[in-house]
Amino acid sequence: MLKILIADDEAGIIQLIKKLISTEIDCEIVGETTDGMSALSMIEMTRPDIVITDIRMPGLNGIELIRETRKANIPVEFIIISGYKDFFYAQNAVKYGAADYLLKPIKADELNGALRRIGEKQGETEKIKSKIADMENAIAQSRIMKRKSFLASWARQLTEAAVAAPEKESGGFEEVFPVEPGIFAVLILKLDFDERVEEDFLMKNLEVLGDKYYRSICDICIDGESYSKGSRYYLLFHAKEQQMEEIIGRVKALMKDRITQYNMYRFNAAIGSIVKSANQINDAFSSADYAIMQRFQAGSGKLIVYDKAESSLIRAGIPGEIRQNMDRVLYSLDISAFHELFRKIYAEVCGQYHNNGYFIRNFLLESVCYIELRLHKDEEPADEHRVRNYREMLAEKIDFSCSVEEIYSTCLKCAVELMEQVKRERKEGISRPIKCMKNYIREHYAENLSLDEIVGSAELSNAYGSSIFKKETGMTITNYLIQVRMEEAQKLIRETSLTVNEIAYKVGYNDTRYFSKLFIKTVGIKPIDYRKFYN
After folding, report:
1. Of the residues 15, 183, 263, 371, which has the fewest C-beta atoms closer than 10 A?
2. In angstroms, rounded to a whole number, what is the distance separating the alpha carbons of residues 417 and 411?
3. Which pTM was predicted?
4. How many CB atoms lie within 10 A of CB 71?
5. How confident is the model over 281-327, as pLDDT tens digits?
């Protein structure tokens, strides 16, 4: 709706103008005045879209009114009303930015035509403004997603087989995270609890808790970004080195202020080593992870600050003798013997690392991942996607442990489940052709796969290959392909800033609408809502 202000030294002209405005024009008269000074005041107060003004008025004439409004940077369009003898002044008014001028006597079609032209122009202007605002918002959201994707990479690599700096996305870290002289450090907040049924509540509220901590230190930080996963909240902050003592003090003070809805949890916080370069941020994450894994010995409610003198963060591999012992048990799939062996391994590791949760977690995690790899050794080539996903799943399960003993129990349970699964598969006779087809799908899911290609990888006919696949897996080849693609899509949504269109293409779909329909059918929510939930 157009907001119109009318200024004329003759009240009768004002009433005439109001009557001449067509009812088809969506507008509202926000002010009427008979002098230029009050017209300027009304413009400042009401911020009209259009001012219809006589060129000759007391106080300020029409040209002076336009000039003063422009000086005040008020966006408004002017329609000048003038007599024939004032034509020269009207031309000057147009030079000062008047949208149109009308000669007296005023004609309805001319007045309404001028109003419509301004309305159409404003509509286009609003569209452009809206597009610019959308672009700015998209850029801001993309920047936030890129920042979080860096944190997700560093957090994910805490439990990967080898620690390395995360691969940088195009644009680079410093383009989305302004770097000034100072330090970087990582704060981890960790909630532990006994009942896993509370996990959903935890994940939804952990970020609220984390933001409370960030707000307590943000005024003395240069910048900061957060990322939540499982029962952990990560905060990467950038500050002047002299502020570090104050930051630690504020975190300690806030930890004493128990938050009611989190009283049911065991709560700890940890700050890793101080680093002075963005290239060393991975070290800040690793050391913070080490510190938070000391919570089992430190006790609940403590802030644990990493002490470099305590230990090296270099991970030890699994000794050859232990590998050989595990291989013998895995070959026979003797679960009783495995229980005995794994308990012995755990006891030796606890003694070697003095019950240090960081090293025990890493050693047992590596052991179970080794078991998973050995139990699938006949699958050629090795399914890197499966191995990576299994490691991430196992690491997250372990992280919900409330003690070193619980880490052991979780790893033992997962290892036994792997052995029992292989025993079932051998008993049920899941054949090599099924493995070939599954492997082929996992390696080529991003391509435009045909049934001929998939079944051909096992050197079978379409009819026979489809039949045995359904018989042995309980699902069709097409449904298995969709399952694999949706698993990868969920991972890309969680861990990258790629658009839905880009993700659809990366998992083998050129039609984004079709991809979204399949995602909703498989996951239960839209891809964009899935991203909001995890970020």
Report:
1. 263
2. 10
3. 0.63
4. 8
5. 999 999 999 999 999 988 888 899 998 765 566 666 788 888 899 99
